[in-house]
Design brief:
Largest sheet: 9 strands, antiparallel
Number of helices: 19
GO molecular function, one term: lyase activity
Structural class: alpha+beta
CATH class of one domain: Mainly Beta
CATH topology of one domain: Beta-galactosidase, Chain A, domain 5
Subcellular location: Cell envelope
Radius of gyration: 26 Å
Helix content: 25-40%
Oligomer: single chain
CATH architecture of one domain: Distorted Sandwich
GO cellular component, one term: cell envelope
Distance between the termini: 27 Å
Strand order of the largest sheet: 1-12-13-14-15-22-19-18-17
InterPro entries: Chondroitin_lyas, Hepar_II_III_C
Strand content: 15-25%
Protein name: Heparinase II/III-like C-terminal domain-containing protein
């Protein structure tokens, strides 16, 4: 990538609130193209490869075909497990979501389906039938943590009230594709197999979607704002409706309802396209919206097309703005520190919106993941889409998306690096916002700092989900608390969760020499903190240093200390007074401070949670205690490379 420097200084002030805007973009598009007249009648007309498309399957790389077949063979004797009542009940007994119980048979069915598509000899059909029958016999396809959606008491699914959650949507999609691909083979074995499967998908998913408007994720009853559940589940439902619905009037009504539901997601999205759930959740937010838009375009012979809309473009480009260096992405809130990024969707999304940076980034991610040497992941439709684009993306021009800087003024997230087009030197990102964001942590004003593309000051992330994670006790979990982010604890008080706890006067400026983010986080703390102003400022002097500065006013100095907390995965060593040394992966940095103003203590935490161990073996928290605090004060910490 050519070096890109912002020649003019851009300073943008942000408000703390972005509110729903009745854009209704998709409903307007549906009306303009006459969706009822444009919608296809037969899913087979969308030109996806099916079981009979032997030329397509035979043309796949040998490495992929052999791996698909090998994986399917490992399930030839698979014993489809019973999902016991106690598996469901574990959510109310211990808080264990038991998602591995649901994941195993899903993985088996996917492997068998892809193996049979690849080989085409009928060897895996009987086991696919067993999988189809297994799911047909199940009461519910969802995840036990989501049973609160039913009217009956939490803990066991109510057969009389089929509710749709993420799990139901995922299985409905997989089974709909399985029916589409193998219904003729099923009928050759017994006429009740395909009939039963279709009936179960309709009963458990499609008909409840038609009949109900009160699933919160639909956004149709106005009970709450929606999040990534909306495009994720809607895409699965769109797939099922297009494949299974025989009555064209019902199909049209179902798709029109789905378009209205998707608009509720778009209506609450910030104009800047930022995903407050983070890049890993973008994979089921912006990326899932793209899957809907792509499928709607295909299902209307190209007529339904909103890819020229600026918001849709911004929702796509977010993914490379939030990128640090492979495989690291900015991971505020519950987001993962590393993610593969869904290369085909990023490539295709970039192509459709005319964004060459995004398109080349998708090709770059595909290259990093050795496309063409192993099967892609995802559901059946997602794997087929990736295989359809395999040659195009492999032959595309890959380029790492290392942009100079970005600012999302409504989401209040900014980032900058030392050199555009290079991983060398510092990269930082910081955020404002509010403490009721989706998958929220109490983290207003925090930052992450990387050097040479490797982590230094980090966002720990979140532990493995349990019932507690999404309960009233969420903020008892240490990783959710502001003191375990790169933030101050003021008069012994942490930030508070809630929509009224906000960052204010957030600004970002950038030019070829410097990038600065600043925000007042005083309103993120409850009254007990006795803080009137706390302006946190991060300044990147490109190629030189990274500075963290505070300017604060307290209404009272209390007995409990005020501390500046920083979390790092680096080894921390005390040097001379006023200096700490941070030894990371291939770099050494120095953290300089005024010992008259602050005194550091270092706390080490061994990571035991399996979710966090994917990124960190352990973390160190540097706690700078403010010496002799006054009602007004300033502090500054400077990070430089040790050469």
């Amino acid at each position: 990538m050519k070096r890109i420097f912002l020649l003019l200084v851009i300073v943008v002030f942000s408000t703390t609130v972005f509110s729903a805007e009745k854009r209704d973009l998709l409903q307007k598009e549906a009306a303009e193209i006459n969706l009822a007249a444009s919608l296809i009648k037969d899913f087979s007309g969308l030109d996806f490869p099916d079981y009979e498309s032997r030329a397509f399957w035979n043309s796949l790389p040998e490495a992929i075909k052999s791996e698909y077949i090998k994986e399917a063979e490992s399930y030839l004797d698979y014993n489809w497990p019973v999902v016991k009542a106690t598996d469901y009940l574990e959510i109310i007994r211990s808080g264990d979501r038991r998602q591995q119980v649901y994941a195993a048979p899903r993985a088996a069915l996917l492997a068998l389906v892809m193996g049979e598509l690849t080989e085409g000899k009928g060897r895996f059909i009987d086991q696919i039938v067993n999988g189809v029958w297994y799911y047909s016999e199940q009461t519910w396809w969802g995840w036990s943590a989501h049973l609160t959606a039913q009217k009956a008491p939490h803990g066991l699914p109510d057969v009389d009230e089929p509710v749709i959650d993420l799990g139901v949507g995922e299985i409905a999609n997989i089974l709909s594709w399985t029916w589409f691909l193998f219904k003729d083979q099923f009928d050759e074995i017994h006429p009740l197999i395909a009939k039963r499967l279709k009936n179960e998908i309709m009963k458990k998913a499609v008909i409840p979607y038609y009949e109900r408007n009160d699933f919160w994720w639909q956004g149709l009853d106005g009970s709450r704002d929606v999040n990534n559940w909306n495009p994720w589940t809607n895409h699965n439902m769109l797939t099922a409706i297009l494949i299974l619905e025989d009555d064209q009037s019902k199909k049209i009504a179902g798709v029109e309802k789905l378009v209205k539901s998707l608009d509720q997601f778009i209506n609450v999205y910030p104009k800047d396209g930022g995903c407050d759930e983070g890049p890993s959740y973008w994979g089921r937010a912006g990326a899932s919206l793209y899957q809907n838009l792509d499928l709607l375009k295909r299902a209307t012979n190209g007529k339904f097309d909103v890819f020229d809309n600026q918001l849709i473009k911004n929702m796509g480009s977010y993914i490379y703005k939030a990128y640090i260096n492979y495989p690291y992405f900015i991971n505020f809130a519950d987001a993962d520190a590393t993610t593969g990024g869904r290369p085909q969707i990023i490539y295709s999304y970039g192509k459709d919106i005319g964004d060459p940076v995004m398109q080349k980034f998708g090709a770059f991610l595909a290259e990093k993941q050795d496309w063409g040497t192993k099967p892609p992941g995802g559901k059946v439709d997602e794997q087929i889409m990736q295989l359809m684009h395999l040659d195009e993306i492999k032959n595309a021009d890959p380029e790492n998306a290392l942009i100079s800087d970005f600012w999302l003024p409504e989401t209040q997230v900014a980032g900058a690096r030392d050199k555009a087009g290079s991983t060398e030197g510092f990269f930082f990102a910081a955020k404002g916002g509010h403490n009721a964001e989706s998958h929220n942590h109490n983290d207003l004003g925090t930052c992450v700092l990387y050097f040479d593309g490797k982590p230094c000051l980090v966002d720990i992330g979140r532990e493995t989900y349990t019932a507690k994670t999404f309960s009233s006790k969420r903020y008892e979990i240490w990783t959710m608390q502001s003191q375990y982010h790169n933030l101050p604890k003021i008069n012994g008080v942490d930030q508070m969760n809630g929509r009224n706890f906000v960052a204010t006067n957030s600004t970002f400026s950038a030019n070829s020499k410097k990038a600065t983010f600043s925000t007042d986080i005083s309103k993120a703390y409850p009254e007990d903190a006795a803080v009137d102003k706390w302006v946190r400022t991060y300044t990147l002097d490109r190629g030189k240093k990274f500075t963290i500065a505070d300017n604060y006013v307290l209404s009272e100095v209390k007995d409990q200390p005020t501390t500046l907390n920083f979390v790092t995965n680096c080894d921390v060593q005390r040097r001379t007074e006023g200096k700490l040394r941070l030894k990371g992966d291939g770099f050494v940095l120095e953290m300089s401070y005024n010992p008259k103003v602050v005194t550091p203590e270092i706390e080490s935490t061994k990571i035991t949670d399996a979710g966090l161990k994917r990124y960190w073996d352990g973390i160190n928290r540097i706690v700078f205690k403010i010496n002799n605090p006054k009602e007004k004060g300033k502090d500054e910490i400077v990070v430089t490379e040790v050469k």
